[in-house]
Amino acid sequence: MSLMGAMNSAVTALKAQSTALSIISDNLSNSSTTGYKANTTSFKTLVTQSYSSTSYASGGVTASVRQNVAAQGVISGTANSTDLALDGDGFFVVSYGATGEETFFTRDGEFEIDSAGFMCLGNYYLQGWETDSAGNVIAGSTNSSSTLSAVNVNRFTGTAEATSAETIQANLPADAAVGDVVTATMEVFDALGVSHTVTMSYEKTAANEWELSLSDPVLSSDTATDSGDITGGPFTLTFADGALTSITDSAGVATELEFSITGFTTGASDITAITIDVGQGTSGTGSLTQFSSNNDDPDISIKSITGNGVEYGALSSVEVDKKGVIWAHFDNGQDIAIYKIAVADFTNANGLENQGYGVYQQTSASGDFTLHEAGEDGVATITPSALESSTVDTSDEFTRMIVAQQAYSAASQVISTASDMFDDLIAAVR
């Protein structure tokens, strides 16, 4: 009984140390795998029956894998803008396929952009919330995975912005005669990114007074073609010692410089209001003055006329910030937020089930997950252009390997010794 028990115990030891060696081998083979979490072997004793001081029944040992999914790996910088690393607790949320309903989790941020524009890790697609252009989540709630969608950087392949404000820095000639007219032009973009030109005509109506009229817009590419209808003006501008003191409409009521454009021939929607900042009564950056030009032919002197609209631009690159906001950069100079990456947190991350390829699945042991914005509620921030290294310590693994090898050899020796003792017993019987 005792010899059989010794052999059975030694066999379980061989199995347990084989398991340990398998885990060590797996760790070593993944020492360079992004986001890999080293596993350790947990040994537990087996007891077949109770024993006393005069009787002992060996049970042996069993081995199981022990995960350390929550361990933080070293973060190293890369040259790829879509490489992402989590610094702290949490996981990227991914789905199998762009429209997959099943949710998975990973610390591997080695994402690539596929031919359709999706950020993916092989067949697993990164999930996030759609945002407005400033990076605010559009979905009413960030607590439900139903508000997530696969991140597609081609959400906007191109963009344009209609003009809503103009800023003028110029000087009207105080030495112009009453009745003289000077002109200047400003560029206005419609919602389709088409450029239009609006002419501003300043007629001197008194010593310190000018009337501003705005012409209907024309295409900047074809100034002979009207492209819309202006509403607003004329405006009366009054100066004192060179400074603009008041702006009134045609009825003599104080007003701001503002106009609208309707009926664009390009098919763009109407622009309901374009304000002109000339610095009067505001803290704006515009400035319209009236000082002498000291020229024989007095004319308006323009320092700058700028607007906030932009022409059409194509997507040129994407970038992710530490809050997980994905910014699309366009070649017209616009930067627009398109997604915010979700970070999932678990009560017991070590209870997740490893699916391979650095991907984990929720289990009853891990508990339910909660979704957070990066850096909020104590979850990880996102480090862009970086990857989290494997947590494998090769020197530690080699030490474990030596221990496992010695234990395996010792268990083998027990079997060999027990076999010899059985031979001796059988020989004595004969």
TrEMBL record:
Residues 385-426 form the Flagellar basal-body/hook protein C-terminal domain. Keywords: Bacterial flagellum, Cell projection, Cilium, Flagellum. It comes from the Bacteria. Residues 173-295 form the Flagellar hook protein FlgE D2 domain. Residues 85-122 form the Flagellar hook protein FlgE/F/G-like D1 domain. One of its GO terms (biological process) is bacterial-type flagellum-dependent swarming motility. Residues 7-37 form the Flagellar basal body rod protein N-terminal domain. It is found in: Bacterial flagellum basal body. It holds the Pfam family LlgE_F_G_D1. One of its GO terms (cellular component) is bacterial-type flagellum hook. Belongs to the flagella basal body rod proteins family. A flexible structure which links the flagellar filament to the drive apparatus in the basal body. This is Flagellar hook protein FlgE. It comes from Magnetospirillum gryphiswaldense (strain DSM 6361 / JCM 21280 / NBRC 15271 / MSR-1).
